[in-house]
Structure to design on (341 residues):
């Protein structure tokens, strides 16, 4: 029997309409000709136009069927942008009336500012509990006001190689974006690089992360975002093939979040890493988030859940050990995953 509550079909439809309109807006800002470039076997679209005496390229996104369709219709989308903005505002009002949690003003305004300068357009992916809250729309589930959805952190991850490949940077330095929000840099011990900032007023922490593909978890550079980032094991699994999501704030903010099935399985790994350390309280929240998502996915997207779990289990003994250790702490998760096998 399900232990989660669902939003109405009206709310779910409104949310997905909002995401579609936000994706339209991104394409509507094209001023030149779309150009596809291929790097390492993957395609990327750019808006190519002349600015003064130079040709300029602005990154639009990774090549997908959805993006190709919107590029083919960008003139029609551009003509309808004014009415589309009003429609987005209406959809956000509808979602709030349906008791969508969305993002409170302090988080929403910061996420909107980061989106405006191109952080998410240039490969940034929201991770952690802020991303978890946005599964409310993607999965159509009601989130309560308990510890599972509470956080004082905003974590953004990106691939170092993608950041280099894009050959573009955000339109304003992160330090300048954060200044009006009273964030101060938190230098790393023994390292001059800054990858996290703390807000002086309510202690919110903003952190930038990137996958580690070696043994160490060192500080790396994310060139496109103009920041340093802490590299972490297992993060490559989490942020591979992210999805677009709408943060319910003002008339909607377009961001990227991990696929929910990957988030659910990744949280099992993270929970085991934290359970015996200084973040043991977070380990419990990791497990609760994973359990909720696994329950929903087992009902709605069992094939996606099974594929994500099998993928993680196939990545080596260390992965299997961490997954099995967390599953042993939750009989409910074990039962569901066994049933999907």
């Amino acid at each position: 029997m399900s232990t989660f509550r669902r939003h109405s079909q009206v709310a779910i439809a409104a949310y997905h309409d909002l995401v579609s309109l936000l994706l339209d807006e991104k394409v509507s800002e094209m001023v030149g000709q779309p150009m596809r470039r291929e790097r390492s076997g993957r395609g990327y679209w750019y808006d190519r136009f002349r600015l003064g005496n130079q040709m300029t390229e602005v990154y639009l996104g990774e090549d997908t069927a959805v993006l190709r369709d919107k590029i083919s219709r960008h003139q029609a989308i551009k003509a309808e942008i004014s009415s589309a903005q009003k429609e987005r505002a209406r959809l956000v009002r509808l979602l709030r009336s349906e008791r969508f949690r969305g993002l409170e003003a302090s988080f929403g305004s910061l996420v909107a500012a980061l989106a405006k300068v191109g952080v998410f357009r240039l490969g940034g992916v929201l991770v952690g509990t802020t991303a978890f809250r946005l599964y409310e729309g993607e999965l159509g589930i009601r989130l309560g006001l308990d510890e599972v959805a509470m956080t004082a952190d905003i974590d953004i991850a990106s691939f170092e190689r993608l950041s280099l490949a894009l050959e573009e940077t955000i339109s304003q330095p992160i330090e300048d974006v954060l200044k009006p929000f009273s964030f101060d840099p938190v230098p790393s011990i023994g390292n001059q690089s800054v990858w996290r900032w703390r807000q002086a007023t309510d202690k919110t922490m903003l952190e930038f992360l990137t996958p580690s593909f070696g043994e160490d978890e060192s500080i790396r550079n994310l060139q496109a975002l103009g920041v340093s980032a802490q590299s972490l094991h297992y993060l490559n699994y989490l942020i591979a093939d992210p999805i677009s999501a709408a943060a319910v704030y003002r008339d909607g903010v377009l961001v990227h979040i991990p696929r929910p099935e990957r988030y659910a399985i990744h949280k099992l790994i993270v929970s085991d890493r934290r359970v015996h350390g200084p973040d043991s309280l977070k380990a419990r929240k990791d497990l609760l988030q994973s359990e909720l998502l696994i329950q929903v996915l087992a009902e709605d997207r069992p094939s996606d859940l099974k594929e994500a779990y099998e993928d993680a289990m196939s990545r080596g003994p260390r992965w299997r050990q961490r997954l099995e250790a967390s599953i042993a702490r939750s009989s409910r998760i074990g039962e569901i995953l066994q049933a999907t096998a």
Q: What stands out?
A: The radius of gyration is 20 Å. The chain has two domains: 5-258, 259-341. The mean pLDDT is 87.
